[in-house]
C-alpha cells in the first residue's frame, strides 16, 4: 500500500470524482429502470408478488444514501473545475479563452481506459447527416466529448464572472449551479461510454461483442436523445438527425429484444431472484 503522505492530491481528487460519478450513474439508472418496468407492467407491477415494489423500496434510498446524488454530482463538477482555480485568477477575457481552448480539451481527453483504441475510433469516425453515422462509435464519442468540453469551459467562465459579481462565493456558485451540474452529468456520461467501448474491445467472443455493441449504441443514442435540446440549441444536431436518433433507439430495441434472456444471464443474477408471478404461465390469465 502507498503511505498516505505519498498519495498524489490530484490523483486522489480524480479518484473521488470518479467514484462519485459512478455512484450517481448506477443508482439513478437502477431507480429509473425499476420505475420503467413498474409502469410497463400496469397494475401487476404494483403487486407485491411481482417483486418490483420491493426492488423499488430497496434501491430508492441509494439516491441519497452514501452521498446524495445531487451533492455527489456537485463533487464531480468541483473536481473538474479545480484545475482552473489558480490558472484563471486575474486573467483577461482573451487570456481566458486561450487557456480554456487548451486546458478544457486536455481535461476531457484524459481518457479513462484503452486510450489508443478510443482515439482511433474518434479519428476514423464517419460524421455526416446520414442516419447511419449515428451508429458510428467515433461519431458518438465525439458528440459526448464536444458536449462535455463546451459545458465545462462555459461553466468555468460563468463561475469566474459570477465570482467577480458576488461577494459571497456560495451565492456565486448557486448562480451557475444548473450549468455546473449539466457539465458534471456530461462528464459522467462520457466516462461510462468510454468504459463501455473499452469493454467491448477487450471482449474475446465475436458474437458477444456484436451484442454488446448494439447495447452500447442504445446507451449512446439514449443519452443523446435525453439531451437532444442542448444538441439542437448548439447546432450539433439538425432537426432531421434528431428524428433519426429516436429511430435508431427503436431499431436497437427491436434488435436487442430477442437477446434479453442472454443479457440477463450475463449479469449473473441468481435464478431464484428472477421469478415473479406475472412471468408464470399458470398466472398469465389471472394477471392479464
TrEMBL record:
Q: Which GO terms describe its molecular function?
A: acyl-CoA oxidase activity; FAD binding; fatty acid binding
What is the superkingdom listed in this entry's lineage? Bacteria
Write out the coiled-coil annotation as residue ranges. Answer: none
Q: What's the short name of a Pfam family annotated to this entry? A: ACOX
Domain Acyl-CoA oxidase C-alpha1: start-end pairs: 10-81
The protein's UniProt keywords, in alphabetical order, are: FAD, Fatty acid metabolism, Flavoprotein, Lipid metabolism, Oxidoreductase
Q: Which residues form the Acyl-CoA oxidase C-terminal domain?
A: 140-278
Q: What GO terms describe the biological role, i.e. biological process, of this protein?
A: fatty acid beta-oxidation using acyl-CoA oxidase; lipid homeostasis
Per its UniProt record, what InterPro entries does this chain match? Answer: ACOX_C_alpha1, Acyl-CoA_oxidase, Acyl-CoA_oxidase_C, AcylCo_DH-like_C
List, separated by semicolons, the cofactors it needs: FAD
Q: Which SUPFAM superfamilies match?
A: Acyl-CoA dehydrogenase C-terminal domain-like (SSF47203)
Similarity comment: family membership: Belongs to the acyl-CoA oxidase family.
What protein name does the entry list?
Acyl-CoA oxidase
